[in-house]
Amino acid sequence: MNKISLAGPVWLASDVHLGQHTEGTSEAFRDFLKLAASEAQALLLPGDIFDAWIGDDVAVVAPPWLAQDLMAIKACAAKIPVWLGRGNRDFLMGEALAVGLGARLLPEEVLVTVGPRTFLLSHGDEYCTDDVAYQQFRAMVRNPAWQSGFLSRSIPERLTLAAQARGESMAANQTKTSEIMDVNADAVAQAIRTAGVSLIIHGHTHRPGRNVLNVDGNVCERWVLPDWDCDHLEANQQPRGGWMVIDEEGPTLFDLEQA
Ligand code: LP5
Ligand code: MN
After folding, report:
1. How far does the centroid of ligand 1 lie from the alpha carbon of residue 110, in Å?
2. CB 68 within 8 A of CB 108
3. Ligand 1 in contact with 58 (CB < 6 A)?
4. Residue 138 Cα, ligand 1 centroid: separation in angstroms?
5. pLDDT at 257
6. How many CA atoms lie within 13 A of 68 on its CB side?
7. Which listed ligand is nearest to 173 at the C-alpha?
């Protein structure tokens, strides 16, 4: 398995879901990047920073909303190492984007060592094995032949397909139970076993927090990163988002309001 060794503190954030109509989230994320650049030794972004990434060529002449987010990531990457992971919405991010930003791409699953601790890091969607329809969709869009077919379409065509896929996904999610959309305990246990770790960190499920589990008699921890949304809120919802800091003491989650 791929390995990265970093000096702490390391900051992590995922599921920011930046898009054309996320001005509030984008502003909060840009503030976060400035803070990370001054306080972290490295930044790991394991997936779904973008609401939908249709190919690295969109960054060549980026629309203004995207240009400002890309510039903010690039400014952060000029100060500290930034690692970009691919999620289920931005799995088409490629080497060209990473190079343009001065960042590096994270492998799908990676062992990260920070000080005395090694953990398994991924986006997390691969552990949602009860969601059979999603795993079928995932297998299709991760297929290199499908990807080159998709990338050969024009940008407007790709934008239309991505919007259609987001619409269908949101409709499909209304029909699924919350258990189906969470990680499968056996899939997590197997990932922990294979990696030989007792700590796993991922995003995707939008259920931030620390979960304790027992794998083959060993006490393990699964930490989930929060999703962000400062724009599309119901009347009783507060803007949300946050990140994780890993230092000598281990992982700690922070809310946006602590920025
Ligand atoms: O993303 P979210 O949180 O809504 O739900 C995810 C799973 N859904 C997805 C689909 C993405 O949101 C789609 C956006 C991808 C943008 C990339 C752009 C380039 C690709 C364009 C593709 C044509 O990941 C959802 C999970 C949920 O997490 C929780 O784990 O349940 O899974 C699904 O919704 C899968 C559905 O059940 C079945 C597939 C619906 C999409 C169908 C695509 C049709 C494409 C039309 C054009 C060919
Ligand atoms: Mn996701």
Report:
1. 24
2. no
3. no
4. 8
5. 80
6. 15
7. 1
**Average pLDDT for 204-210:** 98
pLDDT digits (tens, 9 = 90+) for 228-242: 999 999 888 899 999
**Ligand 1 test: best mutation among 134, 151, 166, most atoms within 8 Å of CB?**
134
Residue owning the nearest CA to atom 21 of ligand 1: 162
258 pLDDT higher than 80: no
Ligand 1 lined by 180 (C-beta under 6 Å): no
| Residue 131 CA, closest ligand 1 atom number | 31
pLDDT at 113 over 90: yes
- The pTM is what? 0.97
Per residue in 154-174, pLDDT (tens digit) is 999 999 999 999 999 999 999
- In order of their start, the domains of the chain are 3-133+177-258 (3.60.21.50)
Contacts of 253 (CB under 8 A, 6+ apart): 208, 209, 210, 223, 225, 226, 242, 243, 244
Q: Residue written as tokens 């259609």?
A: 164
3-state DSSP percent of the chain in helix, strand and coil, to 5? 35, 25, 40
